[in-house]
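Sanity check record (used in CI):
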Amino acid sequence: MKTVKIGLLGLGTVGGGVYKLIERQKSEMVSKTGADVEIAKILVHNRNKKREGIDESLLTDQWKDIIEDKEIDIVVEVMGGIEPAKTIITEALKAGKNVVTANKDLLAVCGEDLLEIAAAHHVDLMFEAAVAGGIPIMRPLRQCLAGNEITEVTGIVNGTTNYILTKMFELGMSFEEALAKATELGYAEADPTADIEGLDAGRKVAIMATSAFHSKVVFDDVHIEGITKITAQDIKYAKEFDSVIKLIGIARNTESGIEACVYPMLLSSEHPLASVRNSFNAVFVHGDAVDDVMFYGRGAGEFPTASAVMGDIIDVIRDMVNGCTGRISNTCYRELPVKKCRDIRSKFFLRMQVENRPGVLASIASVFGEHKVSINKVVQKIITDGMAEVVIVTDAVKEYHMQDAQEELLRMPIVKEISSVIREY
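Expected output for Homoserine dehydrogenase:
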């Protein structure tokens, strides 16, 4: 009976979860995969740090100890970041070792390159845990839904921002209050920038788009906006319009190219994603054969993410036992253009402060008309000190037309400020 040996890179939250799951599953592995499994080495920064329940003889602070160990069959990378992860994974693949990674930062920048290296050396590179934690989405996109022409992948793929927006919507918290609560509960990092500015979601959109549309999309291709400008007043209007506000990652394959974006959106309460609350994630996929499907669950955390890593490890071992590693590598056989944000069509919600006098709305409508922006709805409710708050909802319009209209509006004396600009799904 073969024993598959694993080198684990990183022993933080996810790495610890992977270690525990492997130990928990040991008695089942032969039945599940046809082989035993054993952790042979673990890369850590500090070997002297006490780690309860971890065999200290497995620890090393030299990554080459893992790459040069000929008995290690699978390298599991849960360190994060671009370097040294990229170098280590590259060397592991070239050494003929299979790799399982949860590294969205790396895959969003050079995932295709690493998949090419894996293909050249006939080994597996698996990355289910890189997107949406414990939710299976990469395997469905690459395997289960491979018979479809997928045209859209839309999702809530960041639990921190979803928790914040949920508390703002349901409890009336300000953004700052909700962020503080998320930090207290461990949903937000000490530096939450990657989450609240949409960067984390942007990396995941790049990875999903690449797999769904079989064409390279990298992090720099994704237009990204965060949630820091969402206010209680925006939430109030969303409720009035029977909608919610969510940070949505969208990847669409259109006739004129791929659209890849992350931004807050008004979402009708009837859409399946509208009911996704707190730190949960969900991904909505549309294919020509399957129609609409949605994947929902825990998007982060020790065991949800470790669950995805463990699923990849089991897949790799099955491939090893059956002599078919490398069977799914780089699926980017197309070279589709990625559209600039300015050319994408969206519906918009604008909230602005204007002078309260006759002719103002007509002047604003005239500006929109000149820039090919069609108005769907106008709401005016709040009037104070000679000023009025006006909300305008548009039909779908190209982004650059909307930008031009906003620039002209801000030059008009009657417009004090444009308080919010939010897209509508």
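The radius of gyration is 24 Å. If this sentence no longer matches the regenerated tokens, the check is flagged for review.
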